[in-house]
Amino acid sequence: MLTLRPPPAATQLRLSEVVSALSYALDITEGQPEGHAVRTCIIGMRLAREIYLTPKQRSALFYALLLKDLGCSSNASRVCYLFSADDRRVKRDVKTANWTRLSGKLGYILRNAAPGGSFAARIASFMRVARAGATAAKELVELRCDRGATIARNLSMPEETAIAIRGLDEHWDGQGHPYGLAGDDIPMLSRILGLAQTAEVFHHRDGLNAALAVAKARSGTWFDPDLVKAFHSIRNDTAFWDRLHASDPLQEAMTFEPEETRLTVTEELLDSIAVGFGQVIDAKSPWTYRHSEGVADIAAGITEVMGFTPENTRLLRRAARLHDIGKLGISNLILDKPGKLDPHELALMRKHPLYTRQILERVSGFRELAPIAAAHHERLDGTGYDCGLDASKLPTEVRILSTADMFEALAAKRPYRQDLTEEQVMDILTRNLNTALDPACVEALKIFLEKTNYEPIELAA
């Protein structure tokens, strides 16, 4: 039987424990192997030691390395549209392409323009990307980096962390994005982020020599030459490079956290982290604009009607904000498809609760929420997914979350579909009573709506 238990006292948790585990969700959004951000953190922090950054700088860098991809979901839908391709594949390939050179740019587009499509579809996609050109590339990076910096600030990260994330894709020669900064105008922490993430990608795929080679080849163009020298100076530190292959890279990364500036987690910060990652989740697709926050508000309203304690209401609100975190691992070809999903696509979509469970089970502070958040598509009659649990295994918290999720999805106003009236929404919910939804939860929802005059979330056209 699933239960919602309070986590250990938040003050016992290091912020690094929470953030490093959640970085795995950002990895899958970027199409990277799990642990990419954590391994990038290990490389970047080793560089920080080599160039003698201060403890304050190293603390800001530590979180920037782990959270460098906070804005990665914000351009996923646009990338998918431009290339007619799985956004995760396109994003993964850009990490290895030298897109500042014409040959690298053309090769990148040719590889990713409607792969597997007809010749006509591939030509159409190629022309769409080519017409969009440098302007679109700049806009995509700007959206990603600015969004990432904003979320970092909302998470109460140091300002240096937010600034580092914003400058992630700037290049030493001024040919990067989004602001075309060059040389010493690029914040030092951003320079470390850029080199560390590229080194990790090539090291993980092809080994140390490949990482060293790409750093040398891009020295003075992409990367600060002095940083590249520092990177090459640690090539013989065999013990360090072995650590990148550790069975638990999370624990390895934690050893690089500056003890002098260690940050701990409060209940309020856990709430902020849930809000921030809810924003990452909802940015993945225009179909889910502020969905997580809406579900959280509705679920909290139902719990208050049903007499839950403030503590349990708070925990369920967190679970609601994070319930769709598994969708970060689903292609936008599926998430944004306007028509009916085919059986293969539907099977892939139905994996997102599993991904939610796997992600949250890693995270100290959210681990106890994993079985609740991951069960939001289960049904009382046992025909839901992904575990097929029936009423005997679905506690009230799951029933509330399922009700809130279905109501918000139906009631939210979107410019790309016909709005449903509240009466139409409630009629659909009523037809699902005792099969999918708990009558007591739906009744509490009605009371909440009457008491608060709740207005569904609306996205302007």
Please explain how this structure is put together.
- By secondary structure, this protein is mostly helical.
- The chain folds into two domains: 35-74 and 143-261, Hypothetical protein af1432 (Orthogonal Bundle); 267-452, Orthogonal Bundle (Hypothetical protein af1432), CATH 1.10.3210.10.
- The chain has 23 helices and no strands.
- The protein has helices at residues 15-29, 36-50, 55-66, 76-83, 87-94, 102-112, 119-154, 159-166, 188-206, 208-217, 225-233, 238-243, 249-254, 267-282, 291-305, 310-322, 332-335, 343-349, 352-361, 370-373, 396-411, 422-431, 439-452.
- The chain is globular, with a radius of gyration of 23 Å.
Global Rg: 23 Å
Give me the CATH architecture of the largest domain, please: Orthogonal Bundle
- Quickly count the helices: 23
- Count of strand segments: 0
Uncertain runs are none
Might you state the CATH topology name of the largest domain? Hypothetical protein af1432
Distance between the termini: 43 Å
**Helix-strand sequence:** HHHHHHHHHHHHHHHHHHHHHHH
Shape: globular
**Percent helix:** 55-70%
Mean pLDDT: 92
Integer count of domains: 2
Biggest pleated sheet: none
Judged by helices, strands and strand pairing, the structural class is mainly alpha
Give me the CATH superfamily of the largest domain.
Hypothetical protein af1432
CATH class designation of the largest domain: Mainly Alpha
Question: Beta-strand level of the residues, as a percent range?
Answer: under 5%
Write a brief caption for the model.
59% of the residues lie in helices and 0% in strands. It is an all-alpha fold and 461 residues long. It has 2 domains: 35-74 and 143-261, Hypothetical protein af1432, CATH 1.10.3210.10; 267-452, Orthogonal Bundle (Hypothetical protein af1432), CATH 1.10.3210.10.
